[in-house]
Design a protein that fits this description.
The chain is built from 13 helices and 11 strands. α4 packs parallel to α11 and α9 runs parallel beside α13. The strands form 3 sheets. Strands 1, 2, 3, 4, 5 and 6 form a 6-stranded antiparallel beta sheet that branches. The radius of gyration is 21 Å and the shape is globular. It is of the alpha+beta class. The chain folds into 2 domains: 118 residues, Phosphorylase Kinase, domain 1 (2-Layer Sandwich), CATH 3.30.200.20; 242 residues, Alpha-Beta Complex (Aminoglycoside 3'-phosphotransferase, Chain: A, domain 2). The structure holds 2-acetamido-2-deoxy-1-O-phosphono-alpha-D-glucopyranose and magnesium ion (MG). Magnesium ion (MG) binds next to loops.
Length: 372
């Protein structure tokens, strides 16, 4: 990797002022390869940047992908600057190559892009206190609010039907039929679980089609570890991983946050007895999210918040199962059953959400009353 990294950075204007010191990998994502690259300037000060190899099996059109990201980051940076914010810490900035391109490509190493590294910050995979989750909610709520007047028609659908759960269901059925990996007999209970909930798959898509839910600019990958927190204040500073910013539903963003962050276990926990929905975390997320985005949400969007948590968890579990059946061609896996384990965790969480659904609805009703 050292040689690849050196080649990539030699195509960026770093060597004018900086000496390369080294790099390390960040391996929490399932799609791209991410590295922090460190440089030293003439005064001995360290400067870090984020370098990512774009997974073009997932993002088939890197030009459109980067156009979306440039559009969104420029828009956000302008707003942040107007509010006297620090555009280097509160927003991702695409660093251009020596040729002025938003990514570097060569046949040997593929497509690479570079971002500012948010200084004095950290990301987390687990919630230590409900207040921290509320901060994450505020970050995503604010992100959505800031993009409310973004020209949605300028965005490419870089992965069409990304959160169209019905289309995900059809992909899953196809994977069952094809059984490309020959693993079908090892996941029959999971296949039944997914099939039994088919009616849920079309609910949000149908509401969108009928114009009963508004299309918005959404993040679409609102995992907790896509929020950067300030090392000193522990407040959320910036939302990262803008690859899937596309037209979507606010409910996708809310639901996916709950799926990952309000689970009492990791996304790939093997001991399913550890998996459950933490109602306290759910309550704090609803509160934080509504405090930032609530005023722009419709009544129906708010009413569907509990359902969206179930749907996004179901959809993600089904995507892991589909990939397991297809032979692990999409998500990075660390061992052969990884996608099946991830699927089981998601489905255990769906089952727990179903048990707690009335309580979740009561929480949303109470939080809705607070903001009125
Ligand atoms: C992928 O790369 P990462 O970990 O941020 C996936 C998301 C899934 C998530 C599940 C482009 O996100 O949709 O929810 O894994 N991203 C893409 O952990 O498919
Ligand atoms: Mg991602």
């Amino acid at each position: 990797m050292e040689q690849a990294i050196k080649t990539i950075i030699s195509n960026y204007p770093f060597n004018e002022n900086y000496d390369y010191i080294g790099h390390y990998a960040i391996d929490s994502g399932h799609i791209n390869d991410t590295f922090v690259v460190e440089f030293e300037d003439k005064l001995g000060e360290i400067h870090s940047y984020l370098l990512q190899k774009i997974n073009t099996n997932v993002f088939k059109n890197p030009v459109q992908l980067m156009e979306n990201i440039l559009g969104v980051t420029d828009f956000l940076c302008k707003k942040i600057a107007q509010q006297d914010g620090d555009t280097n810490r509160e927003c991702l900035n695409v660093i251009r190559t020596k040729n002025g391109e938003p990514f570097f490509y060569c046949e040997k190493y593929g497509h690479w892009r570079c971002y500012n590294y948010i200084s004095n910050s950290y990301a987390i995979d687990f919630i230590s206190a409900p207040e921290v989750f509320m901060n994450a909610a505020k970050a995503f709520g604010k992100f959505q609010n800031m993009l409310a007047d973004f020209p949605i028609e300028t965005l490419y659908d870089t992965i069409p039907n990304f959160h169209n759960t019905l289309s995900r269901y059809n992909d899953f059925i196809k994977a069952v039929e094809l059984n490309l990996s020959g693993r079908l007999d090892t996941c029959l209970p999971e296949v039944e679980f997914a099939k039994a909930r088919k009616d849920d798959a079309g609910v949000l898509v149908n509401l969108l089609e009928k114009g009963r839910l508004p299309l918005r600019v959404t993040h679409n990958d609102t995992k907790l570890n896509n929020v950067m927190f300030d090392k000193a204040t522990h407040e959320s500073i910036c939302v990262v991983d803008l690859d899937t910013v596309m037209p979507g539903l606010s409910l996708y963003d809310f639901g996916d946050s709950i799926r990952f962050g309000a689970n009492t276990a990791a996304e790939d926990e093997k001991d399913l007895s550890k998996v459950s929905l933490d109602l306290k975390l759910f309550e704090f997320y609803v509160r934080g999210y509504l405090s930032e985005a609530g005023s722009s949400l419709t009544e129906r969007e708010i009413n569907y918040l509990p359902f969206s948590a179930k749907l996004m968890t179901y959809e993600c579990g089904m995507r892991f199962l589909t990939d397991y059946l297809n032979g692990d061609t999409y998500f990075r896996v660390h061992y052969p059953e990884h996608n099946l384990i991830r699927c089981r965790t998601q489905f255990a969480l769906v089952a727990d959400i179903e048990e707690k659904f009335d309580e979740m609805k009561a929480i949303v009703a109470a939080e809705k009353a607070r903001i009125k």
